[in-house]
């Protein structure tokens, strides 16, 4: 069972806990690190699309993609309408209405800092509309402070919405509240902290 740079094994977890073919939406490119070990002939086939805003990361993922026949990577803004159309088209080609699982690794803080509380809610609601299950790796609040501190040290403008955030203190609790209250998802499990001190929140659609 392979491990990512942050010590988690979400790809192996998903594959090993589902018997039939899975269709996966990966919201960051880091799942690519799992593919060489987890997508072997002994594993069930999956179809995966990974998206990220950074064109350099996407290009690297494409260059190192061991399974271009069933894994694709796209440089997209998930909150844009264009992205929604592309993902719905991808699902239609697979004769699916939703992805089986969506992975959100180390991304919610950046959505939160750049789009505020409303943006975080909109992001999670859109993911849940597209997926039967969601796996979220939230960054702890200290990462927010560190990101802000790095900008100030570089004499750059701080995140303009940071002081307006009401979802402060423990991002995991706020994300769990959004998933259950606004998205009608229920908890499957919450893992222990990994080497980076981060948990994985795993939730699924109620019906």
TrEMBL record:
<dbReference type="InterPro" id="IPR024160">
    <property type="entry name" value="BIN3_SAM-bd_dom"/>
</dbReference>
<dbReference type="GO" id="GO:2000632">
    <property type="term" value="P:negative regulation of pre-miRNA processing"/>
</dbReference>
<protein>
    <recommendedName>
        <fullName>RNA methyltransferase</fullName>
        <ecNumber>2.1.1.-</ecNumber>
    </recommendedName>
</protein>
<dbReference type="GO" id="GO:0008173">
    <property type="term" value="F:RNA methyltransferase activity"/>
</dbReference>
<dbReference type="GO" id="GO:0032259">
    <property type="term" value="P:methylation"/>
</dbReference>
<keyword id="KW-0489">Methyltransferase</keyword>
<keyword id="KW-0949">S-adenosyl-L-methionine</keyword>
<dbReference type="GO" id="GO:0008171">
    <property type="term" value="F:O-methyltransferase activity"/>
</dbReference>
<comment type="similarity">
    <text>Belongs to the methyltransferase superfamily.</text>
</comment>
<keyword id="KW-0808">Transferase</keyword>
<dbReference type="InterPro" id="IPR039772">
    <property type="entry name" value="Bin3-like"/>
</dbReference>
<feature type="domain" description="Bin3-type SAM">
    <location>
        <begin position="1"/>
        <end position="207"/>
    </location>
</feature>
<dbReference type="InterPro" id="IPR029063">
    <property type="entry name" value="SAM-dependent_MTases_sf"/>
</dbReference>
<dbReference type="Pfam" id="PF06859">
    <property type="entry name" value="Bin3"/>
</dbReference>
<dbReference type="GO" id="GO:0005737">
    <property type="term" value="C:cytoplasm"/>
</dbReference>
<dbReference type="InterPro" id="IPR010675">
    <property type="entry name" value="Bin3_C"/>
</dbReference>
